[in-house]
Amino acid sequence: MCGIVGYTGPRRAVPILLGGLAKLEYRGYDSAGIAVLEDGVIKVHKQAGKLAGLAERLRDYNGQARTGIGHTRWATHGRPSDTNAHPHIDCSGRFAVVHNGIIENYLELREWLGSQGHQFTSETDTEVLPHLIEHFYRGDLVEAVRRVVEHIRGSYAMVVLAVNEPDKLVAVRQDSPLVVGLGQGENFLASDIPALLAHTRRTYILDDGEMAVLTPEEVRIFNRCGEPVEKRVFEVKWEAAQAEKNGFAHFMLKEIHEQPRALRDTLKGRLAGDDSAVVLKELELDDGKLRSLRKIFITACGTAYHAGLVGKYVIEQLARVPVEVDIASEFRYRRPLIDEDTLVIVISQSGETADTLAALREARRLGAPVLAVTNVVDSSIAREADHVLYTWAGPEIAVASTKAYTTQLVAMYLIALHLATVRGTITLEERRAIIKELKQLDSRAELILSNGHLIRDLARIYGRAEDVFFIGRGLDHAVALEGSLKLKEISYIHAEAYAAGELKHGTLALIEKGVPVVALATQKNLFEKTLSNIKEVKARDATVIALAMEGQKELEKVADHVLYIPPTNPVLAPVLAVIPLQLLAYQMAVVRGCDVDQPRNLAKSVTVE
């Protein structure tokens, strides 16, 4: 979850490190720090709080250091504080380390190191790393880091700076992402590509167990046995501007407005010109295997899990194969009943989500083929899955996922239609009708976005609410869950989502005068049932904000406010219905003065369990 940067070359390191950290602050922003090698001494500058505080402190810093490392933290072990901030150093001050991940056996290592005379100053698991390096160092930093790796358990992306080996950085990765940026007479390290784009597009994506040794002149990669590895250069194709705000007040708002483009890009080349079929040549799925599937398992976390819930509904409805959806953090601990006749679909925006990656590995261990839906090319999940369907959302910087979610929904539709075609559970006419509507989603999303002022007005009215409830049936319930998550994660309003039919089984006790209830009613076959549920909450004096397709004027007789989405095939409604909910969450967070892009206690890419 934390962000790591490193630099070695002819330029001043501090501005480069701070600039890189600014691009990674979405990964964590509890504290920030840098360590640079200057005049034969490691100088550490770090403090609690967001990067801006550290940058202000270093504004007049004139140091000429040419090699350094930096870190922006999402706290796991130890509260956010100056002391717990990275980098951490050893007793002698000869080694500095930044680390993303969790060292699971740090307590026993800390106790053992303490018995050897090492003294600790922080509460973090990371601090054992520089002390271990100090213990094992015999004049060869690479060998010392290799010895450390032999003694630690857990996940890590680690970068080490050493006094005795200037102009060198040693990095190693296990279950946490790390990217090498290849320059001319200089080289870079980062947790994610946006931190590198100001300097280079040529990168190495490190695999688990690999170690990178950087100097200004070269980059060498080794496997866990110390053998040299020939890496393929990954050339970044997207523009740096895609990771900028481009005039929007927040990244989240920009990314909400990028959804029409993201939908187009994710569909591009995947639909037959005559609307007759889905074209997924990149998957190389065997038709015979797809016809013999007995079950599909979808696993993911957070917003991606909500996309999986939509996927379950759509795949079962169109392809008529049983689908189970599980939260990835629970998947491998309950001995799932899967085998070679089960297709496991894992969904992850970053492709690095630790729990989802663990679920993928468990599925493969049990013999199931794995299809990954991810937004990041060459990510860990993309590399380890049997098949990959990329969503072309582009970089998503805001912690709250928006365009990644809607493109994940599109991926679910593509998979469902392909399965239905192969298994013969959908007619050509039905297929063409859905595909024709898929092609219209981008323009209909643009229409919703053009009416954003209506939602801004609602946010001004209800932005100070302390409790909000979301209700819906069928696909609307899955979207309600996502709308609820968006609201609570960025506005800190307590929000809950319920299947509308469950209200009378306990939840109505929480409905009282003035409580806002967001009621989704986009599913024609469930409209009358949902309307009855709306009347139930209105009878308890709730305030209802209804969301429906154009033409459902009956809602205006019972709801306090009605938001409309353009008409579409009901199975595709989640893509359009979620956009007003994203905008509502955003506008309510703005009204409350919340930090929209960097909500408290959260980080974008969850790379620890």
The gist of it:
The chain contains 19 helices and 24 strands.
What does this structure look like?
The protein has 609 residues and is α/β, with parallel strands linked by helices. It has three domains: 3-237, Glutamine Phosphoribosylpyrophosphate, subunit 1, domain 1 (4-Layer Sandwich); 244-450, Glucose-6-phosphate isomerase like protein, domain 1 (Rossmann fold, 3-Layer(aba) Sandwich), CATH 3.40.50; 458-592, Glucose-6-phosphate isomerase like protein, domain 1 (Rossmann fold). The strands form four sheets. Strands 3-2-4-1-10-9-11-14 form an eight-stranded antiparallel beta sheet, covered by helices on one side. A six-stranded antiparallel beta sheet has the order 5-6-7-8-12-13. The termini are close together. The model has no long low-confidence stretch (mean pLDDT 91). Its EC number is 2.6.1.16.
Relevant terms:
609 residues, alpha/beta, Glutamine Phosphoribosylpyrophosphate, subunit 1, domain 1, Rossmann fold, eight-stranded antiparallel beta sheet, six-stranded antiparallel beta sheet, 19 helices, 24 strands, 22% strand, globular, carbohydrate derivative binding, repeat, GlmS/AgaS_SIS, Ntn_hydrolases_N, transferase
Please give the structural blueprint.
Blueprint: E1 3-8, H1 13-24, E2 31-38, E3 41-48, H2 51-57, E4 67-73, E5 88-89, E6 95-103, H3 106-115, H4 128-136, H5 141-151, E7 154-162, E8 169-174, E9 179-182, E10 187-190, E11 202-205, E12 211-214, E13 219-222, E14 234-235, H6 251-257, H7 259-267, H8 287-292, E15 295-300, H9 302-319, E16 323-327, H10 328-331, E17 342-348, H11 354-365, E18 370-374, H12 380-384, E19 387-390, H13 403-423, H14 428-438, H15 441-450, H16 452-462, E20 467-472, H17 475-491, E21 494-499, E22 516-521, H18 527-538, E23 543-549, E24 561-565, H19 573-591
Parallel strand pairs: 15-16, 15-17, 17-18, 18-19, 20-21, 20-22, 22-23, 23-24
Antiparallel strand pairs: 1-4, 1-10, 2-3, 2-4, 5-6, 6-7, 7-8, 8-12, 9-10, 9-11, 11-14, 12-13
Helix pairs in contact: 3-4, 4-5, 7-13, 7-15, 9-13, 9-17, 15-19, 16-19, 17-19
Function: Catalyzes the first step in hexosamine metabolism, converting fructose-6P into glucosamine-6P using glutamine as a nitrogen source.
Domain SIS: 285-425, 458-599
EC number: 2.6.1.16
